[in-house]
Specification:
- The structure holds two protein chains of two kinds.
- Chain A is an alpha/beta fold.
- Chain A has 15 helices and 22 strands.
- Chain A has two domains: about 260 residues, 3-Layer(aba) Sandwich (Aldehyde Dehydrogenase, Chain A, domain 1); about 190 residues, 3-Layer(aba) Sandwich (Aldehyde Dehydrogenase, Chain A, domain 2), CATH 3.40.309.
- Helix content of chain A is about 40%, strand content about 20%.
- In chain A, the strands form six sheets. Chain A has a seven-stranded mixed β-sheet, with helices on both faces. In chain A, strands 9-8-7-10-11-21 form a six-stranded mixed β-sheet, sandwiched between helices.
- The longest helix of chain A has 20 residues.
- By secondary structure, chain B is of the alpha/beta class.
- Chain B has a single domain, classed as Aldehyde Dehydrogenase, Chain A, domain 1, CATH 3.40.605.
- Helices cover about 45% and strands about 20% of the residues of chain B.
- In chain B, helix 4 packs parallel to helix 6.
- The radius of gyration of chain B is 20 Å and the shape is globular.
- The mean pLDDT of chain B is about 95.
- Classes of the chains: A alpha/beta, B alpha/beta.
Chain lengths: ~475, ~300
Amino acid sequence: MVQIKDRYRLYIGGEWVAPSTRQYFPTYDPSTEETLAEVAKAGPRDIDKAVRAARRALPAWAGMKGAARARVLFAIARILQERAREFAILETLDNGKPIRESRDIDIPLAAAHFFYYAGWTDKLEYALREPGHKPAPVGVCGQIIPWNFPLLMAAWKLAPALACGNTVVLKPAETSPLTCLLLVEVLEEAGVPPGVVNILTGAGETGAALVAHEGVDKIAFTGSTEVGKAIQAKIAGTGKRLTLELGGKGAHLVFEDAALDQAVEGIVRGIFFNQGQVCCAGSRLLVEESIENTLLELLKRRLSTLRIGAPLDKNTDLGAIHSKEQMTRVRSYLESGQDEGAVLWQAFFEAPKKGFWCPPCLFSKVTPSMKIAREEIFGPVLTIQTFRTPQEAIALANNSNYGLSAGVWTDKGSKIFALSKQLRAGVVWANTFNQFDPASPFGGYKESGFGREGGLHGLLPYLARR
Amino acid sequence: MSSDHVHKTYKLYLGGGFPRSESGRSLKIERPTRSTNRSPRILAQIARASRKDLRGAVEAAQKAFGPWSKAKPMLRGQILYRMAEMLDSRGREFEDLLVSFGLSDRRQARLEVEVSCNRLLWYAGWADKLGQVLGTVNPVSGPYFDFSSPEAMGVVAVYPGEKPALLSLVSTLAPVIVGGNCGVFLVPYEAGPIAITFAEILATSDVPGGVCNFLTGTRDELLTHFVMHRGFQANFLVSDDPREIKLVEYEAADHVKRGKTVPLGTPALWRSPACQGLDWISPFLEIKTTWHPIGL
């Protein structure tokens, strides 16, 4: 279904070039630990070359009529849709996520993002909201994306940047680069001119060098809060623009008047989608005390029916944990939670001999000071705390350095609005969770980062004015 | 101002009151003198705020944030309008102050006060329009009602410039508070008397105590404490000094603070429309997106 090359070079100025480091590193299938391909490790000289290529390509791309750029973006969307199966399979192989998710969510949403922003290219004046000004691109954008939604994150970054006439140097995560590299075929076929999108593979140091490069006008980063802070500190005083989409510890509030069966589905979607490796995961369940036992029983029953295993099997609910490193991290939190006195429940599961696996985990008897209640685990681990009043629920929910997402379940409309206004989070899902759409702005408060991706607000970080 | 005017001590403006610095320290403001053998005449004293005053100011601002951010937008607009009225009625006094402290000549002082009033009026009108201009209803591909709206960010550390003393303060204050934020202002030494006199306008315009807090003193001493304080969600810096800009932006990373940096500029620039705008308000607002299913 999908052709994987043995080895991928760097994509700079419309050509595949060997890295100046002469080094390549493997990318694995996390469900089998087998090597899928080798990818190039970009060094400082490659970064310089890519930034220069992006700079050279900028005037023509930015000067192109909006409608002409739109055609290119529409074409990307269409070709992605045509080749959706191929991309879905490759995403699942390289990332470990269930094919049901890459097929129904990652790839269609990625295509939809290009389609949505394609429509903006010749309407940017309407987005500016500053009378008397003309829209202009920001320049050369360095974009660094994570491994949890590789192609989708590339689409979130590329589509608005290209729509506004910027050129890009994109760095995919070192453990999940393959769909971004396959995307090159789509970009070329769609008519993206050489140098407009450059793709450099590599690890943290490649990203750091891209951030530090003087020729970059804007950095967009999605990843951990720790790395986000380092990037923000690095570009201090340089005048570079920055948007950060960082970690989260989403509070998920369930009131006794909620439709419990639906809430259970929402909770499962909230924390076990993509094995919980989601920055906006609803990882902190806050339950009204009166329904704690009922909800816990319903959850355990539901979790026992989830199928964990081969990511390419379309009946699979939970795939593999993305990497050995991530597996170690999740395990350390499972230990820390128990050490601190929380009670762990895991769905029964026999792990295959190879690959990285973790069954759905619930922690009850959790207190707000525990590490598992404060830190982002980025795995299928849900903590459960209780509250008695809406005020207490809000206080618990907002007691976090993060502020990316939150959820509320209640059947009372006025209560939803009263609560959603007080939740200090960039996205609030009421009676649903983990919904995404290209037209809907996404991004955090507090240490979850700044700037929005998606919708009209998602254009603004890529739009300057004359 | 007559030469035998009352020698005034300008205190801090903190939590709606006018206390001295807890440190008891103050600074003299002297009239510049041409002759070298005469000692300069003391025009006034200003309070020299300490790190502890800063802590108190941030606490006051945090306490004020809840009610101020939840206040009806139209009420916030009316309060800003009232500030413009008060400034207008005391305009001559501000002109005199600007001139007597050597911050401006008479002609420019008159313009500065006039533009400051107009700027407050301009921002007053924004209070109840931000939601409509910055908010959206998002046409998502599913059975959901999905909308995004701006919300106040929290407590902002504001560093206005020395000149134009009044206009730089007004131009940074109005966009921060109009959307429901509170601010702690590090007032430059020379601008102290202007800022504290302007605080009297705040105090008599129904701006709740704690929404704006003015600390006077030396920027060098206080800046480090300001930038390290985790009670701020954002910085609003007026500066041309690369080291200062780097310090503020670098320390912001520790708590992922947001911010806006604008150049020191000239009085003429500050009077121009370039020094007001929606993009002076929006860096201090968060966008919240709310989803809800649609169905029977």
